[in-house]
């Protein structure tokens, strides 16, 4: 199974600039220690050289201070060789058409399939004048390794691959005035990643685990015209998302996906919706109790779903398949 989160990536994603500099300094010294324990020349294979060039070239002159597995001179020699090889006219049969090449790269990037499975997908499309070696050569020219070495997909790739049946949820709060003073009211929202459609629960003063489980039950039993039912639900590590909450989802065929620690950016679409609804609607009103807040949220979410255009949907609102009148 693809490992979406690596401890080092989580640290880097949440680090400040100064802390990130300390990470780099530590890793640099750790690599130097490991290099000292491997005396003699380290021989690298073509794929390893391609990876070093790919990630080293954007660093420009800074690579001279970071690289330890080889000398900076060797690295720059590899880069010059790569440039010369691209200038030379290839010998042999003409390459495959640009359309076929683009199709193979598209299948590879969107599925992570290996050479044989990509060949199988091409056969399904009626493309038979291609062999496994051709697929391998095209991917190799783009410095794309075999399938097992491409198994560490990004979070964005995961979202795109599962967007049709993937939902996310999170809380937001609104200060309300009551006869007993100001209180915080909590609302739980659910978002469909593909269409950007939002559903909002009634507000509550006490969002305990029992209330959250109750709202999750209402969510999974929602009456919708959508063809694809939810299969996954992203949520953070809030203790309100209890074992009962997760078991309820699993019983309905929905897999709960808990985010790692300190990673709000992984649920950025929901965070952005909360910012939008507060900035465009809720911040302009004073709420006097749950009933008024529920009305404001209901109207705001309804307007968002019917009229809010999204670039990712070719400027269509979440609940529309064609532009509104």
UniProtKB/TrEMBL annotation:
Question: What InterPro entries does the record tag this protein with?
Answer: Integrase_cat-core, RNaseH-like_sf, RNaseH_sf
Read off the PROSITE patterns from this record: INTEGRASE
Q: Set out the biological process GO terms recorded for this chain's protein.
A: DNA integration
Q: Which domain of life is it from?
A: Bacteria
| Ranges where the Integrase catalytic domain occurs | 144-325
Instruction: Give one GO term, molecular function aspect.
Output: nucleic acid binding
Q: State the name under which the record lists this protein.
A: Integrase core domain protein
Name the species this protein comes from: Gimesia panareensis
């Amino acid at each position: 199974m693809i490992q979406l989160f690596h401890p080092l990536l989580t640290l880097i994603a949440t680090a400040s600039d100064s802390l990130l500099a300390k990470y780099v300094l530590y890793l640099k010294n750790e690599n130097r220690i490991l290099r000292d324990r491997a005396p003699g020349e380290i021989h690298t294979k073509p794929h390893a050289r391609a990876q070093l060039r790919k990630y080293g070239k954007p660093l420009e002159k800074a690579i001279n201070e970071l690289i330890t597995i080889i000398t900076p001179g060797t690295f720059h020699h590899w880069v010059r060789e790569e440039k010369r090889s691209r200038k030379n006219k290839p010998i042999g049969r003409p390459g495959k058409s640009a359309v076929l090449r683009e199709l193979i790269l598209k299948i590879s990037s969107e599925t992570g399939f290996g050479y044989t499975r990509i060949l199988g997908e091409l056969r399904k499309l009626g493309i038979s004048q291609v062999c496994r070696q051709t697929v391998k050569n095209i991917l190799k020219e783009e410095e794309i390794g075999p399938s097992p070495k491409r198994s560490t997909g990004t979070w964005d790739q995961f979202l795109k691959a599962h967007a049709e049946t993937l939902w996310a949820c999170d809380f937001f709060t609104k200060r309300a005035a009551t006869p007993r003073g100001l209180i915080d009211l909590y609302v739980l929202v659910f978002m469909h990643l593909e269409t950007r459609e939002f559903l909002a629960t009634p507000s509550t003063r006490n969002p305990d685990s029992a209330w959250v489980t109750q709202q999750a039950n209402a969510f999974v039993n929602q009456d919708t015209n959508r063809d694809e039912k939810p299969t996954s639900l992203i949520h953070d590590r809030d203790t309100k998302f209890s074992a009962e909450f997760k078991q309820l989802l699993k019983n309905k065929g929905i897999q709960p996906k808990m985010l790692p620690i300190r990673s709000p950016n992984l649920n950025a679409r929901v965070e952005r919706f909360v910012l939008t609804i507060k900035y465009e609607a809720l911040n302009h009103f004073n709420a006097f109790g749950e009933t008024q807040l529920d009305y404001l949220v209901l109207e705001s979410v309804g307007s968002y779903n019917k009229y809010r255009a999204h670039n990712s949907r070719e400027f269509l609102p979440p609940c529309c398949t064609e532009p509104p009148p």
